[in-house]
Amino acid sequence: MAYKAPIKDQLFVMNELARLDQIARWPGFEDAGPETAQAVLQECARLCEEVLAPLNVAGDRNPSRWDNGQVHSTPGFKEAFRQYAEGGWQGLQHPADFGGQGLPKLIGAACSEMVNSANLSFALCPLLTDGAIEALLTAGSAEQQAAYIPPMIDGRWTGTMNLTEPQAGSDLSLVRTRAEKQGDGSYRLFGTKIYITWGEHDLAENIVHMVLARVAGAPEGVKGISLFIVPKMLPDAQGQATVRNDVHCVSIEHKLGIKASPTAVLQYGEEEGAVGYLVGEENRGLEYMFIMMNAARYAVGVQGVALSERAYQHAAAYARERVQSRPVDGSTAAAVPIIQHPDVQRMLMTMRAQTEGSRAMALVAAAAHDAAHAHVDPGQREANRRFYEFMVPLVKGYCTEVSLDVASLGIQVHGGMGFIEETGAAQYLRDAKILSIYEGTTAIQANDLVGRKTLRDGGATARWIAQQIEVTEAELAGSGSPHARAMHRRLTAARKAFIDVVEFVLEHGKAHPNAVYAGSVPYLMLSGALVAGWQMARALLAAEHRLPSAQGEDAAFLRAKIATARFFADHVLGALPGRRDAIVEGADALAAMPLEAY
Amino acid sequence: MAYKAPIKDQLFVMNELARLDQIARWPGFEDAGPETAQAVLQECARLCEEVLAPLNVAGDRNPSRWDNGQVHSTPGFKEAFRQYAEGGWQGLQHPADFGGQGLPKLIGAACSEMVNSANLSFALCPLLTDGAIEALLTAGSAEQQAAYIPPMIDGRWTGTMNLTEPQAGSDLSLVRTRAEKQGDGSYRLFGTKIYITWGEHDLAENIVHMVLARVAGAPEGVKGISLFIVPKMLPDAQGQATVRNDVHCVSIEHKLGIKASPTAVLQYGEEEGAVGYLVGEENRGLEYMFIMMNAARYAVGVQGVALSERAYQHAAAYARERVQSRPVDGSTAAAVPIIQHPDVQRMLMTMRAQTEGSRAMALVAAAAHDAAHAHVDPGQREANRRFYEFMVPLVKGYCTEVSLDVASLGIQVHGGMGFIEETGAAQYLRDAKILSIYEGTTAIQANDLVGRKTLRDGGATARWIAQQIEVTEAELAGSGSPHARAMHRRLTAARKAFIDVVEFVLEHGKAHPNAVYAGSVPYLMLSGALVAGWQMARALLAAEHRLPSAQGEDAAFLRAKIATARFFADHVLGALPGRRDAIVEGADALAAMPLEAY
Fold first, then answer.
1. CA atoms within 13 A on the CB side of B334
2. How far apart are CA A484 and CA A490, in angstroms?
3. Which one of the listed residues B439, B503, B544, B596 is annotated catalytic?
4. Member of which family (chains A, B) (predicted)?
């Protein structure tokens, strides 16, 4: 099924909800207004629709292949990556000083959604490279930045993140890879890293591994972890990266999905040790890695949006074509396209509402990131920084969990055909399942939401969000349309449930951590749905405002937006008050269950 | 991961909730008391644990293979099927007159759960054979019964159901396969059938295809469909099945899951026409097929229970072993097995509660089936028949939808390991996805629930169920324990939400079918969760009653049952009132969405 980039919805969200026009008033983003955004999105759409999307199924059927330490990517990927790099897409959000375009994250996120919709496995390679660039921009020396960032931006080299080891997954305190300091200031690394996405491949000349390891004598736990650059190829006497470093891919994983993306087991130091260069200071590696991980977590959330969009498009196209059964209302005696059946509409609208809600929350968060960095008012920068930080676990956790449901519904719309791999719908479910796991499982995001994002500031950001939602509620009350009234009622009830939960977390977080953390994922899912619904409420208001002066395709788009927002209100927001109790009162059953009884 | 049959829980449900002791008082089931049940379950467990379960992964990695019209099953399956047949398992629920054991469906369902937990792909072959036997028992002539049932019961032959054609999936009115009557009273069939589970294989000597087709001149639509027996092998002059019939497997599907189970495309009448024998009367095929489908739908619901149980066992075992991260309550400074983390407990308890709730509702429904056939009181037979009929779409729809969530949570408990195929958790998700599709998608079950099971009797059965639930509520009120009090509150609120929804369906079913059917799947899921929760409430009461006199393992089991019921109350039943509105008021958004806007 051909992929069509959802530019109209992206621009609507960027202009109406994320206020791209404001971003273009801040220093550094003067050229990044709505017209630039539209031009960039259209150009990106061309690459995604014509080059990347057609390779998505091929990547699943003919995955990356390991052969004696080498990884051969799916045929076509190398050429696609060349076009991606030549188009300048790797540098979209990165500073012009290093060859990037310096565009806002808001535009970058919209493009990233498209690339991921088109080909999730492919998109992971640039995603990880972005992370490596981000880490070096934050903590690398000027020399390191100059040496590593430009070749990554121009696509000659790519980047990876090396955190996980067999015994150290979510728990990085257990990292054992060791780094031995050499006389010349460099280090030699020894250890095994697993789950290294695009950790070995043939798309680029060199791979810049960003690796967590322990220097001899470092403190135990997370305070003794340092961050190193370990290039696959080291410079020769002429400064050309031609000398093979002692890091080798010993195997790649056989996975449920994202099969074109090689997931490498990397062995460091089988011989003399892998040459590595310390980033920043010793023992501050986790801090630097968190910068990278924060960006990557947001990016994975966008992958969720992307996956949902693709699965929705696939299912809607099938539902329009597949003829089966007479309508339940008896309006005709013949079988009709299944899109006419109410339950198929319910499934498609669930998929669509979650996709649009996820997109709106992700893009509004991206705009907050831009404001946090570029807003002229320091108070606004700080407020936006807090909001963005609160949003990262929600975007990562909610958008990815939702994408799994959306992909599953996508199969269901296809009926028996959905279970047959040739149809293509099943790949989305298989691909989606990793999203709620890598870069921190949903539980890890929920820990972050409870601990660092709610308890640490005493609920200030959570309450601030609730206040912003109340502003939207007042606007809904002012509209008076039946859809706005329904949304008003659902949003108010959901916001109240959220505040109840926040108060519960604040009251019991210290004294009864087990009870609070037992509800942490439900809290995350409730918060995510609330924020997505809030954005759909704002979308409803904006659409109602624009509709009287709109015509043709634009008017149809706005009417569909209103209907989709209404659906979100009744079917998603409406369920939230019922989830409150399971968080606030749901831990008693766990307390009654001895561990040995499971 | 080794599979361990959950005999203790099955016997608890059979004895305490499904009242096996009563069944053993009815004529024909005198030998089917609790002791027989225990012996049969233990024997079945041995076969499942030692023979079938170890082949489950092999079937996924080395699926059935098509080669020039022949299908070669996974190595080991043929020998396993021989042991299954020799053990008499195919005849468990079938009449002794034909070589079966004549045991109640209650015992048969418990055994079926084990077989499916052990190896879902394998279990599909006997499941379909059961359907063919059922159809012949109901509608076959004495000669047909004598000729086909005994060899199916003794495992020399197997059976299939042939409904679907490329253009006729959920909508059987579109069936085109044609049957031409011959001078000798037999028919010749011509057409293509797809999605035929175990439609061709090497496990048995012959395959008895039960095929829907149209006789020339038959009425249009479902009223012109007849049912035929089309054996793969026809009898020779000596009556031995040695002559190849004109039905051929032209390919098998490449599927997301249940890969060991060949899903055949069967071509009837490529040459002279496939010889078929009419079952019952012409044009009543759909009626007969529905008998078979009703049994198969229930059986697929049990597959859902089975899949959930297996996924739970796998995840719980991993959570006990995998050490990662310190506890959030700071009780120790070292990393602990992840089962100590509250969110892992929440996931495992969600899996466990849904598994036990599904099992309880499925087995209680099986007991109603037995009562409907064997109870000495005709009024009780009728009441149980109505209850069982209402339960079939719930068991099929709810237990299978839930199994998908359980399998997905099972992967999540494993973290990154879950996404790696070697771990085994991913297979359960891939296998589970078919369960909500085949034998009628969840939407088809929901149509049945709304139309035939709710509207047709004016809500009488639905209201009767609500009254039974009120009886349980009164017993909970009488208990006074904190767990019973919590359950009471949740069950009452859920039952009221259910009645609201039933009244909505009754009021608007005729006048606003689109609105009612838009909420049909949510109505099914709410009803399923309510009935499962009701059974968990009864389990809680029974466990509280038994606990004072129980010791050791038994007491531990009962305490875990109480905790699991409490979890079901807070986390599943608690969410139901919040789903009411999406059903009762949720169709306005669909009405606002023009079809071309999707």
1. 3
2. 10
3. B439
4. Belongs to the acyl-CoA dehydrogenase family.
Q: Does B166 touch chain A (CB under 8 A)?
A: no
Token representation of residue B543 = 């466990």
A510 close to B (CB below 8 A) = no
The structure tokens listed for A233 are: 């190829």
Domain B7-153 of CATH type 1.10.540.10? yes
The letter for the amino acid at A476 is: L
Cβ neighbours of B386 (radius 10 Å): 18
Find all residues with CB under 8 Å of A328, minimum gap 6, and list them. Answer: A341, A342, B447, B513, B514, B517
Angstrom distance (rounded) from CA B538 to CA B554: 18
**B42 vs A432: CA distance, rounded Å:** 40
pLDDT digits over B437-490, tens only? 999 999 999 999 999 999 999 999 999 999 999 999 999 999 989 999 999 999
Distance in Å, alpha carbon of B186 to nearest chain A alpha carbon: 31
What whole-number distance in Å separates Cα of residue A215 and Cα of residue A524? 36
- In CATH terms, the fold of domain A290-439 is Butyryl-CoA Dehydrogenase, subunit A; domain 3 (1.20.140)
Give the whole-angstrom CA distance, residue B296 versus residue B317. Answer: 31
CA distance B208 to B196: 12
Contact by Cβ (8 Å): A401, A358: no
- The length of chain B is 598
CATH hierarchy code of domain A7-33+50-64+73-153: 1.10.540.10
Residues B170, A195: C-beta atoms closer than 8 Å: no
Contact across the interface for A169 and B513, Cβ inside 8 Å = no
How many Cα atoms occupy the beta-carbon half-sphere of A77 within 13 Å?
31
How many angstroms from the chain centroid is the CA of residue A510? Answer: 30
- Cα distances from A550 to residues A35, A555, B597, in angstroms, run 19, 5, 16
Alpha helices, DSSP H only, in B481-519?
A: 482-508, 513-518
Extract the runs of DSSP E, i.e. beta strands, from A273-407.
Answer: 274-279
ipTM: 0.97
Joined together, the tokens standing for residue A553 give 């395709």
What does the pLDDT look like over A121-176, one tens digit per residue? 999 999 999 999 999 999 999 999 999 999 999 999 999 999 999 999 989 999 99
Active site residue B439: yes
Identity of residue A353: A
Disruptive mutation site among B172, B323, B345, B454 for chain A (greatest number of A CBs within 10 Å):
B345
Mean pLDDT computed over every residue of chain A:
97
Work out the pLDDT band at B235, boundaries 50, 70, 90.
very high
Beta strands in A253-288 (DSSP E): 263-268, 274-279
Q: Are B487 and B473 in contact (CB under 8 A)?
A: no
Query: CA dihedral defined by B469, B470, B476, B477, rounded to 10 degrees?
Result: 170
Report the C-alpha gap between A559 and A516 in whole angstroms.
Answer: 41
CB proximity list for A152: less than 8 A, separation 6 or greater: A90, A129, A132, A133, A158, A159, A208
A214: enclosing H helix or E strand: strand A206-215
Q: H helices of A322-377, where? A: 342-374
The CA distances from residue B266 to B122, B201, B446, in Å, are 20, 12, 29
Asked if residue A157 lies in contact with residue A198, where contact means CB atoms within 8 angstroms, the answer is no
pLDDT (0 to 100) of residue B482: 96
pLDDT band at B57 (very low <50, low <70, confident <90, very high): very high
CB contact under 8 A, A597 and B325: no
Q: Which two tokens stand for residue B48?
A: 């499942």
Judge contact between B197 and B219, C-beta under 8 A.
Answer: no
Q: Identify the CA nearest to A23 among candidates A97, A107, A127.
A: A107
Let me know: does A166 contact A192? Beta carbons within 8 Å: yes
Q: Are B86 and B155 in contact (CB under 8 A)?
A: yes
- Fold classification of A157-283 (topology level): Butyryl-CoA Dehydrogenase, subunit A; domain 2 (2.40.110)
